[in-house]
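Task 17 of the worksheet. Students: predict the tertiary structure of the chain below and write it out as structure tokens. Keep your answer in the requested format; marks are given for formatting as well as content.
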Amino acid sequence: MMKFFTLIYILLAFQSAITAQNYKQRFNEIDIKHYNLAIEVNDSTNNIQAKMTVSLLFKQLVNTFYLDLVQVDSTGKGMHIASIFQNNDTVQFTHSDNKITIQPNAIKTDSIYTFEIAYEGVPKDGFIIGENLYGDRTFFADNWPNRAHNWFPCIDHPSDKATVEFKIKVPNHYQAIANGYLFEETNLSENLKLYHYKTAEPLPTKVMAIGIARFAVRHLGETHNIPVSTWVYPQTKEQGFYDFANTKNILDFFIEKFGEYPYQKLANVQSKTQFGGLENAGAIFYAEKMVNGEQNHEGLIAHEIVHQWFGNSASETDWSHLWLSEGFATYFSDLYLQKTQGDEAFQQKLKERREKVLNFYKKKQTPVVDIENTHLMSLLNANSYDKGAWVLHMLRKKLGDETFWKGIKTYYEKFKFSNASTNDFKNVMAEVSSKNLDTFFTQWLQNAGHPVLKTSWLYYQNKLRLLVDQTQENAFNFPLDVEIIYTDGSSEIKTFEISKIAIPYEIETKGEVKDVKFDPNTWLLFALVD
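Model answer:
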């Protein structure tokens, strides 16, 4: 996802305070296998009519279990449940605190049961109904991070994954896009049409989505047997088709880097998402104003495509590990920039990201893996994106390109369609490289801060004396590249292993030293002070 930081604090009020402990307890009790949502929208009201059939397995014998669903509030928005059936028999339930507590009939462990929940209402959030910038009526899911339960019953957490199908009934002047493949498209009557989409792969709720609007659609063909398409408003047809024309090339680049694309299609969709881009699995939504015909959002498109592997398929176990999604998408999209625009543009982007990290730390001293932050929108910050990207960049330097990419592919292969923590990623990279990475991961991800260096140097009689002093509270261990520039115009790079203790380094030089530059090729996240 690419974010708009100006929205972060406005949106905090929408976040539920469901704790990780509650989710872990539920995961020990039930395992949702499949969501089947039948939904109908109309042009006269914002009320949706829906029926969710949830197929789940009980891991334990329980008297009750619950699903997340926002109930009707004082504004009249929210969902009202008409009935719940278990395998065609009615069951008792209550709906309060934005949870449906269900009392199942006789159950056995390790058996799959279906619960059919009929409900209706006006979505409070998560399913955005309104006018687009051209005044046309549209309907777009916008689930990230845990807003899906505003419009359908679910376990609204990235650790819960299930296959999903959407049966979407719409007035026939609309088209509908969703995750998965189009299983059925039927004219039900003169005024009503059905679109039925199915996924073959399990998804977290954060990237389940449907979009309903008047669209202009262009099919760009296939790459690696993956159909690629563009869905934009008819008023911006030519601009949108041009903006997304390079999608297959971007997709090819990342398939080569990561391996097989995880989903059945890739559709780029102009939408009403509040984010710059939202990485819905196989159907990426982009802010409607991003479509401008200038083809100047290639980095954003690359970012959202990376998420199909990292964030959607290999998902974080909990929100505190968000960098495994956003840091990965940020760094790997920068590598695409390096391929298309060159090393100078890539290094400039790294320097810009470094400044963002340093500036963010001045305001908030928190680690990348921030287990204390329960305001999920505020995790969309420079730590998750820019520092997460920098961690990958420094890890690549530490391991070397061949080992780094072997580790990335191994990590993805192990956790595709599943979930991983930062420790899971560390263990894979350590195993592939045969290196102990505990210190690296602890200092860069689990502790706040970065090296703040005060440096000095002195040249005398073909000897260079360097002093590198860490001035921050917690010392780091890291390699520091130093470029020694000679008076004859030549230069060489030496690497020094900086430890917790400030000690002088003395080396023989090839001649008279004119200048010394620290980190000349932009491999270290650090700040310099006078």
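Marker's comment: Residues 343-363 form the longest helix (21 residues). The first strand starts at residue 30 and ends at 40.
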